[in-house]
User: Which sequence fits this backbone?
């Protein structure tokens, strides 16, 4: 989507040199920086340390990491080593392994000399497929929003709540949860998005940044606020993304998603999950029980990154803002150093709380039968 | 409770000079500072700008604000003016008005010459009553914890989740939600507390600080984490405080409490609310519908206060930490400046989600009949 006047994807290659670049998302929304990735270590760092985040973008980045490694070493052993190195960078993201497997399975049967080009072409295809999938998700979600807008008829915008950043920054373009919002705004529908801050990493700031860049009205709120807003009629629907969806429709997504699903259910508000089919893990039949939850470094909870103050801080609580320039970023620590911290990064929302799954093939109930019915091809091939 | 080797209350007076002091809680847990309050403007600022917070402490501070004003001007007009000035500082806290009314009603019938001393004595009594009420809440809550500990028998601690700071810093001493925890720890029970960060103001850092100071094991978590922990058996009970309880048992408390109540209900985990009887608003029969929710300044959401980095930050994301000394505090801004922010400060948890109310007179069901039965004296006098 747009950044200033330029249309960006979140990962792209130079069509002459095949050099691969990403947006280093650690600095957003404070600074917009792009960086070129080359070595496998570069790609591993970018995934593990969340320069890129979001299941589809992690998949595309992993695919490019494989492609760049195969440029240098097309041997079976080299491919396997890269697979191993990249696979362990993020334990929860199903797309990571999916992309790595797909690259390896595509390239390994080929003669050594053909592997580098084939790997690049598949990495390009994986990225392009993601864009097309997200566009389809957006078109399907748009119809849900259109139906709610038609029913409202109170002259107020359709209020959509979202959690985390399932935006274009988390995919190659369009985003998953945001794609219906972008499509609705582009179609001239009156929409407004409640953006959950999404502690501990505040990815809501990314969502706010990208919605703002595209001109979609939105309001940034703390994660605690959504239940109250739902109680008081301020939310018409919830759309979130997912890092991994179990075959039974249980949805693993950023920590806190489950709480919003409970509140939506309690207030009879539709709760939708936007997901590309590669996010479905057909091998897991009970997501709440069987999806392992990544416990991340406690410093993510202790510390927060933000911009230092400017004129606006003159009357604030600042004791010592240092001598840094306006807009520079720094980290602060909030809890006492002596306190233990816990940092489970995801939770699983049971299918019973999910109104529907917005996929590239349509909107379906969150159930084993519905998912298998919509994706008979994938369901068979993946569970075999 | 203890700060270092000294036992503090959160508000106290000098028995010779009647000078009133508080802990300026804006700087906790980073710095421990006390400040003397004198003028009515001092007290109004301390309440409005949250140098003191928590319903009971706000009540005690308001009472002392009245007493100090009456020292200077004991006239009916002076008393009324102080009442007006202090009453509008925080719209949600029922204790504020309760304390102001009680001071005025006590003093107004007296001869002018007797008012100053009577006002001081009543302010002392209000503070002492709060301490005794919280002690009783703690003893009643202790029995709940003891029963759960006896049933567990798995050698693991009783895991208690709490939201916000309903600790001794929010009362005069003991706290409300924390009083059972302090009593349980003092009684030698093996307890562990999950402390919700409680965005936007991060009062969980205060709870972590006071639990740590008293030696109670605890873990600081983001507000998003509690649902996941409950799903996986890591929480045995929830105890929160309340700023205002409706006569039907609906509980108005810090924003986000409702989400934790939903999660506790969904996982069959007891959800208790600790409340002193002055927190009950007998005039409100439907809390969800009728309690007005304070919308606070959006800068509370935009900005966060914390300690600047030290050695620990050497390998972190710091771009410019300024030249400030270790432990100095500053504010950062997280979301884009261009984004709108919303900041509802409280939400209301419906009585149907509350397992019980822990009061100074015992633990009862959250219902009109139970509350009226336990407090027939208050119920009659306040609703008359």
Assistant:
């Amino acid at each position: 989507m747009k950044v200033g006047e330029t249309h960006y994807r979140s990962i792209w290659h130079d069509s002459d040199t095949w050099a691969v670049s990403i947006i280093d998302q650690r600095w957003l929304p404070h600074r917009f920086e792009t960086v070129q990735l080359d070595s496998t270590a570069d790609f591993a760092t970018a995934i593990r340390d969340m320069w890129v985040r979001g299941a589809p973008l992690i998949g595309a980045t992993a695919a490019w990491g494989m492609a760049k490694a195969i440029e240098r070493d097309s041997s079976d052993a080299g491919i396997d080593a890269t697979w191993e190195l990249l696979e362990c960078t993020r334990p929860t993201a199903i797309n990571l392994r999916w992309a790595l497997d797909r690259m390896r399975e595509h390239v390994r049967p080929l003669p050594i000399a053909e592997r580098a080009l084939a790997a690049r072409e598949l990495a390009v295809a994986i990225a392009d497929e993601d864009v097309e999938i997200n566009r389809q998700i957006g078109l399907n979600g748009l119809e849900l929003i259109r139906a709610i807008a038609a029913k409202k008829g109170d002259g107020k915008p359709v209020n959509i709540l979202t959690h985390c950043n399932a935006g274009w920054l988390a995919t190659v373009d369009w985003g998953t949860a945001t794609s219906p919002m972008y499509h609705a705004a582009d179609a001239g529908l009156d929409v407004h998005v409640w953006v959950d801050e999404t502690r501990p990493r505040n990815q809501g700031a990314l969502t706010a940044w990208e919605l703002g860049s595209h001109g979609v009205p939105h309001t940034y709120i703390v994660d605690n606020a959504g239940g109250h807003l739902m109680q008081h009629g301020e939310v018409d629907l919830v759309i979130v993304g997912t890092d991994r969806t179990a075959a039974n429709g249980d949805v693993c997504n950023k920590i806190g998603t489950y709480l919003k699903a409970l509140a939506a259910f309690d207030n009879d508000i539709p709760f939708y999950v936007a997901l590309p089919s590669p996010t479905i893990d057909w091998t897991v039949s009970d997501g709440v029980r069987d999806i392992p939850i990544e416990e991340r470094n406690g410093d993510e909870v202790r510390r927060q990154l933000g911009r230092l103050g400017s004129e606006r801080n003159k009357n604030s609580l600042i004791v010592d803002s240092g001598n840094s320039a306006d807009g520079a970023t720094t980290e602060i620590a909030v809890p006492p150093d002596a306190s233990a911290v816990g940092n489970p990064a995801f939770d699983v929302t049971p299918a019973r709380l999910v109104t529907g799954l917005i996929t590239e093939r349509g909107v379906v109930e969150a159930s084993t039968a519905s998912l298998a019915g919509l994706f008979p091809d994938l369901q068979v091939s993946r569970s075999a």
